[in-house]
Amino acid sequence: MTLTPSPAERVQALRDQINEHNHRYYVLDEPSVPDAEYDRLFNELKRLEAENPDLILPDSPTQRVGGAPLSAFGTVAHDVPMLSLGNAFEEQDMLDFDRRVREGLDSPVDAEQIEYCCEPKLDGLAVSLLYEDGLLTRGATRGDGTTGEDITANVRTIRNIPLRLRGEGWPRVLEVRGEVYMTKAGFEQLNERQRETGGKTFANPRNAAAGSLRQLDSNITANRPLEFCCYGIGRFEGELPRTQVGILEALRGWGLMISRELKLVSGVEGCLEYYRDLGERRADLTYEIDGVVFKVNDLGYQRELGFRSREPRWAIAHKFPASEELTELLDVEFQ
Ligand SMILES: NC(=O)c1cnc(OC2CCCC2)nc1N
Q1: Residue 278 contacts residue 253 (beta carbons within 8 Å)
Q2: Distance (Å) from CA 152 to ligand 1 centroid
């Protein structure tokens, strides 16, 4: 004879199931149940929480949406500045970058190939997520790199951002940095819906992502097809792996999405091969990119190289030739 679970036990069981389905669907891109089954679980959880409000916790999947609209965004001071990337446009710029890296180390290396972590440069908005004891406590825009807007209510609505880190071993304080973007398909569907409802349409996915994150009413943000892909960390208290790739793989284990195109290469030739390969596949990607990003993989080397005034000496963006579309010129910078 099976005992009927208490509301508290049933609520916890539903949360665990829904969080697992969300992780598979939004982060692993492997849906595990039909939508109807997911909706049934979600509606049962909402009903049980409505009947037992004292059981509601901030990381419950039902708590992604719903606060009252803000009158203005608060501001956030970035303890670790969110700096932007230097650019390479020609192959020679990459050769110069690699030489500066090798010569800039405490013990310069000449023949040795530097290991670089490669990834696409997503064309969205840089965002900082703060996790304390595994709970998402704050979301912020890059702003001017030192001060950004507090968009916590809006980032909580982005389905592939975990409200609580999965697994274990994460640092007690962990600031995750990454890009909020819209896929090409999500962008087209949003503009179609905007045209049908007389809403404003967007010039490109980047503007659409910026406009969707800029909403003071998070209920609007919740209905926008936004995704988050992390690419690094800011502030942390605790232990982290010693390489860029190691950190990203740890972030994936904690439930965050990282780029499927992530690759570790050896030397600047490996970077140029990655750039050519991604350039050939750019039109087939489901999201817009405006280049690729190369980072020195060894974190000790990153520390030795440090930052120039506003850019790291250990990372560079190798941009694709800009398309002449008017939209590139109209692109509004969201600070
Ligand atoms: N748009 C991107 O996809 C992207 C942007 N920035 C970075 O890293 C920068 C951040 C500050 C130092 C390195 N990585 C990226 N992938």
Answers
A1: no
A2: 21
Is the reported ipTM for this assembly greater than 0.85?
yes
Q: How far away, in angstroms, is 164 Cα from ligand 1 center? A: 23
Atom 4, ligand 1: residue with shortest CA distance: 121
pTM of the model: 0.90
Q: What is the pLDDT of residues 175-191, one digit of tens each?
A: 999 999 999 999 999 99
pLDDT category of residue 141 using cuts at 50, 70 and 90: very high
Q: Ligand 1: residues within 6 Å at CB?
A: 83, 85, 119, 121-122, 179, 231-232, 293, 312, 315
Nearest atom in ligand 1 to the alpha carbon of residue 122 is: 3
Show Cβ contacts of residue 118 under 8 Å, excluding neighbours closer than 6 positions.
261, 262, 263, 264, 265, 270, 271, 274, 292, 293, 294
The H or E element containing residue 115 is strand 115-122
Active-site residue, 319 included: no
Residue 32 above 50 pLDDT?
yes
